[in-house]
Fold this protein.
Amino acid sequence: MPEISRFFGIIISMFYDEHNPPHFHARYGEYKAEIGIDTLTVLVGHLPPRVLGLVIEWAALHRAELLADWELARKHAELKKIAPLE
């Protein structure tokens, strides 16, 4: 699972050849969640509220880049790194 960003102990990644809807994976310690790119909602899993807020803030800032990486992943192309939340 290629890592596309990392910030505040949160790892953001995306699988190749994933199922729809477009989404990314966020991990923080033992917590994991899949976040929809279009809706910015948790599709599967759970993150602590503060961490989820940071992930959603980051995703809202980088939605176009996430969608571009989603298309690259569907083509099995190299994903581009996305700037972390600062």
Notes: The beta strands are 3-7, 10-13, 23-28, 31-36, 42-46. The CA atoms of residues 20 and 36 lie 9 Å apart.
